[in-house]
Amino acid sequence: MAKQRIGIFGGTFDPIHNGHVKLAASFLKKLHLDEVWFLVTPQNPWKQNNNLSPDEYRFELVQKALEGHPGLVASDYEFHLDKPSYSYQTLRHLREDYPDKEFMLLIGADNWVKFSNWAEYEEILANHSIAVYPRKGYEVDESTMPPNVQFVKTRLYNVSSTEIRARLAKGQSVARMVPKSILARLSPPTPKGGVKNS
Fold it and tell me: Looking at residue 155, what DSSP letter applies?
């Protein structure tokens, strides 16, 4: 029996937005994947980012945003691993826990151009195929890619979580930027000290 093909789409998703969802749907179709797992990255205890929203809140938003999108799955898998968990460690655990599945790493061109700086990147290349999607300002030379790495031509989605957080902090609308299902659950970022702006 053929292994299920799963795309691993990792990120902080703070918050998840329409670009993430549309990009994953494109992966699902273009790469003939069975599922795309949104692997929500936990807070790194060694590199505190006081502006990062709580893990469970970000995961809950991803779950809610993906309702009604068959094949797109919210995953808190990394929450249960030792921290910090590098990509090669996460993928190693996934291979052990899900021997019936084949995992493909989905990364942006911004990450591919510095992929050789990733911890144990050669282990990732030896065990997984990788799909690279376009990111504005990053050129990728497809001719230099290893056989198990491919460039996937997808739309460039002009929306970012950083911009959404900035708009929320100013009380501006983000209705066109995020799935309707999470709009009411979004709250302005909490500044250092834990007190929200009034």
Answer: P
Q: Based on the number of CB atoms within 10 Å of its own CB, is 138 exposed (0-12), middle (13-18) or buried (19 or more)?
A: middle
Identify residue 154 by its one-letter amino acid code. Answer: T
Pick from 14, 42, 38: nearest CA to 25: 38
d(Cα 157, Cα 172) in Å, to the nearest integer? 20
- Rounded distance, CA 47 to CA 102, Å? 31
Would you say the C-alpha torsion 55, 58, 64, 70 has a positive or negative sign? negative
Q: Give residue 85's pLDDT.
A: 84
Name the pTM for this structure.
Answer: 0.92
Q: Is residue 35's pLDDT more than 80? A: yes
Structure tokens at 125: 């290349």
**145: which DSSP letter?**
S
Give the chain's largest Cα–Cα span.
Answer: 57
Contact 31, 152 (CB under 8 A): yes
